[in-house]
Amino acid sequence: MVAEVLTAAVRGVDSYLIRVEVNLAPGLPAFSVVGLAEGAVREGRERVGAALRNSGFPLPPRRITVNLAPADVPKSGSAFDLPVALGLLAAGGHLGPDRLSETAFLGELGLDGSLRAVRGVLSVADRCRRSRVRSLVVPAGNAREASVVDGLSVIGARSLSAVLAHLDGSAEIEPTRVDSVALLSCAPPASGPDLGDVRGQGSAKRALEIAAAGGHNALLIGPPGSGKTMLARRLPGILPPLTLPEALEVTRVHSVAGRLGDGEALVTRRPFRAPHHTVSDAGLVGGGSPLRPGEASLAHCGVLFLDELPEFRRPALEALRQPLEEGRVRLSRVRSSVDFPARFLLVGAMNPCPCGYHGDGSQRCLCDPAQVHRYRARVSGPLLDRIDLHVEVPAVPFGPLSTARPGEASAAVRGRVCAARALQEVRLGHLPGVYANAQMDSAHLRRFVRPGPRAARLMESAVDRTGLSARAYHRVLRVSRTLADLAGDEEVREDHVLEALQYRVLDRRPR
To answer: Is residue 507 part of a domain?
Structure first.
């Protein structure tokens, strides 16, 4: 007898439906899994066998063949345990096939028959809804996550026995329901460190406000102890709250990466990721087997902070070029190719020289010009071109440090940032893939950034004197547009261009 159970597999942050076909045939007892099943899937034979025995259903002494269709697509993970077990019970006559129709099943089995949470359930739930599957049975730890998807009945079970009792009607499980809109609207405001804790550094705080308002990448350059890390960790607190589409995207990525907590339904705050400079290429942009998202994707819709930027491996930094331009990471391998979303705000921090004290006026720097040049050259020109704001963060004198009066709070800055983002939404909201000024391409710049005559002459002079690349020129225009939005101006004026040019300190080189 052949039984069929519907499930799904995750590829990247998307998923596709899988049909688990189970056949019991006469012959010597054997248990084989076919259909390009990888390690964890094949090991599921032992988990399924033990779970069935401990649930009162020993494996039949038959030749068991499990096929995962389509058979030409690699399958990985432990989420096939539950559908395989149900397929065995249906093929053995313990479960009517009508009980399995229009329902998908997903979950890892413990040896005692318990159900354990798996990765990527939100993507699976979305695929089931779009494929008109009526209900989805998942481990209880994944039920709230899957229930974020509207139009799908989600059943959260704690064990194989509970699933069987639900299917035969002896102990039905109530569907889990989550109001994602209410969940997001009730999320508490950002409770991280406040910008008011930072003493002094007015220009650096202004640069962070500009970065948050327009989605611009920033590089903080200053001596040790000047507050670069302190400033960067306060950036999420001045960003606008996540919208529901953004929260769903972030949750999908974190679910695939296994970063959601047990019972967590939705990521409601913007991520902040700060990997160590020893991170591998795959750890930063994604990779491995199976392909998993890296830090760049885990920072999607949030902040990726790279402290001690020149200490990162050059190939890892260069791998960030694509996500900085396109907002996604494409990983291509022989057997598969996936896309991970990676639209993040990059904040880097670095010292001005190897010892950290170049140009601070203290005479402590012992680095010669060649050493300074080699140190800064660790960050390539093409990567620097993709960073809009180069911000000098000088050492803070004693006066501001000793004052007890706090600076401007994050809430006040966030109010101005949200007002600027509202203007951008009106201007850019109809453009696909453009969420803020930083995502505008050259065509959008010609349409929406209109410098006045004096501002245009100033830009021409700056390009001629500093040798700005075309990419850097466009980034100055984007920052100028954001400065105009913060000021509530429709036209980009000369003072906006002047301020934007001040944030290209690493481009100030003689011809």
So the answer is: no
Average pLDDT of the chain to the nearest whole number: 91
Domain end (from 390, 416, 439): 439
Residue 511 has pLDDT above 60, yes or no: no
Position 360 pLDDT exceeds 60: yes
Q: Is 358 left (phi over 0), alpha (psi -120 to 50) or beta?
A: beta
d(CA 356, CA 20) in angstroms, rounded, equals: 60
Q: What number is the average pLDDT over the span 168-196?
A: 86
Residue 311 belongs to some domain of the structure: yes
- pLDDT by residue (tens digit) across 93-115? 999 888 899 999 999 999 999 99
Residue 454 lies in a domain: no
The confidence score (pLDDT) of residue 186 equals 81
**Which one-letter DSSP state was computed for residue 119?**
S
Give, in order, the Cα–Cα distances in Å from 112 to each of 44, 55, 283, 310.
14, 7, 34, 51
Number of structural domains found in the chain: 2
Q: Tell me, what's the pLDDT at 510?
A: 39
CB atoms within 10 A of CB 176: 18
Residues 262 and 391 in one domain: yes
CB 6 within 8 A of CB 69: no
pLDDT score for 470: 82
User: How big is the chain by its Cα radius of gyration, in Å?
Assistant: 27
Structural domain range at position 27: 2-178
By the 8 A CB rule, do 145 and 151 touch? no
Give the largest CA-CA distance in the chain: 88
- List the single range of 170-179, 309-318, 344-353, 470-479 with lowest mean pLDDT: 470-479
Beta strands in 214-273 (DSSP E): 218-221, 272-273
Task: Kindly state whether residue 167 falls inside one of the protein's structural domains.
Answer: yes
Q: Is 65 left (phi over 0), alpha (psi -120 to 50) or beta?
A: beta
457 — pLDDT class (breaks 50, 70, 90): confident
Which of 419, 439, 459 lies at the terminal end of a domain, its last residue?
Answer: 439
Omega before residue 352 within 30° of 0, cis: no
User: Beta 218-221 vs 345-350: how paired, if at all?
Assistant: parallel
What is the pLDDT confidence band of residue 508, given thresholds at 50, 70 and 90?
low
pTM: 0.92
The upper half-sphere exposure of residue 118, i.e. CA atoms within 13 Å in the direction of its Cβ, equals 33
Work out the burial of residue 177: count CB atoms within 10 Å of its CB; fewer than 13 is exposed, 13-18 middle, 19 or more buried: exposed
Confirm if 109 and 40 have CB atoms less than 8 A apart. Answer: no
Supply the pLDDT for residue 404: 60
In sequence order, what E strands does 296-413 have?
303-306, 328-332, 337-341, 345-350, 389-392
For the cut 90, the answer to whether the pLDDT of residue 321 exceeds it is yes
Q: Are 324 and 217 in contact (CB under 8 A)?
A: yes
Contact 141, 116 (CB under 8 A): yes
